[in-house]
Predict the structure of DUF4179 domain-containing protein.
Amino acid sequence: MDKFDREEKHIHERLSKITVDPSKLAEQVKSQLHEGHAGSADMPARRRKRWTRPTIAAIVMSFVLVASATAASLGDFDWFIQRFNPDFGKIVEPVGIYSEDEGIRMEVIGAQKYENRAIVYLSLQDRTGQNRLTEQTEFRDGFTVKMHAEAKAVTSDGDEFLTSSISWKKKMLYFNTDTNTIYYEFNITSDPNSPLADPLELGSFLISFNHNTYTDAPISVSLTEIDDVQTIPVGETQIWGGSNMSSDFNSLTEALMPGNYASMPHGEKDQWVSNIGIIDGKLHVQIGSIFNEEFGPTDPALSLKGPDGHFISYDYSLFFFSDKKYNLLDKEKNNYGDAIYKLEEFVFPAINENLSHYTLTYTGSVYSGVEGKWKVAAHLSDTTANLRTWKNDISVEGHLFEYITISPLGVQVIGSYTGEDYMATDMLLEIETIDGIIPLEGGGGSQNSDKHTFNASWNTTAPLDVAKVKAILINNTRIPVN
């Protein structure tokens, strides 16, 4: 994007915040022009004074007000479509509804829905001036889409439970660093038996701003003179999990005393080296962290880097939970809700050499973000006329395509399969139209391995004119559209 485009956008956003009634402004301008002309008719000619800076500023301000009225008449939706020319811009309708929390505004600019499929253009903007949004910003698992109904399934014991699934493909269209605003395209698909709610309701309960990754980063601890170490007794019910552990928990009878030995390479306060020491000739390193935080450091991975540059992995790790006084929790008496800290202890193999020649390293990531409540409901027009659904019993490589639906966003199929292998989502789908062949992209789906049923979707890269569709090609098997 060139400088002119950036300044143009910046000016547009500033002007769009100014409101003015252009009709009243026009009347005032006409009145002042009329008064000035009438006054000059009876006055003798005289030398005009040069305009002063305040006068020029007033004229510029008048121009800004008129320009703001013009900019406002364009509208955010029209500006968005003209500026970015999104793939599905011709079929979405303007929405212009936003939700704001924790200084972050989520706005749905435009959208369109076809039963259980939708295309959505939305933006995120940090309104605090802190510029917290980055090119790594994402919703992670916080993004929600309300569905109209949920399908019921039955377990082998006869118990009913609710089941539904939803998927989406997200594409970042543009990141405006000047206004700290990100523009996205969401292509959303839900199960056929769980159509999207009407109105279309989108939301999120968290937004991730950024993350930093550390790979084999040195931990600033000395591995010399650590023979004397305080330990605490542990029992099987105090060990909540781990990796590569022995199945015989009774052999694990002691662990390091929790504390605050050193900082981690990332410097975050919610994760630290709790303790380090030698137990039974093996190096133990205990990492403490605040438990159940949505953001912050991930679980760590530790290694020992030897003097020859080779890395030594730990033999096994185990973890405990504790209260705020570092009292270990018991699985038979406590639950996860009682935990304040998580303590993970890494146990390395016995090393005959002097440990002072080794370096303890850390691998992991640190996420930043904010929790909140964002929810937007968009009332959209009925699009039933742009859907074509029909029943078919076409078999393709052991998969029976029973119900097929075509919309401007692509194709969705409900079917069944024989055998143990489900391969529908790997099949090649193309649309035969009166204008030619249109290839589709795999959009995902779900399956019921007990009942051998499935639903799968394929996406278009541009709006599909449903009226022009003649047939669907599945792995070169032609299914006419009646």
Summary: Residues 1-74 have pLDDT under 50 and may be disordered. Helices lie at 3-15, 22-41, 53-74, 76-84. The domain at 387-480 is CATH 2.60.40 (Immunoglobulin-like).
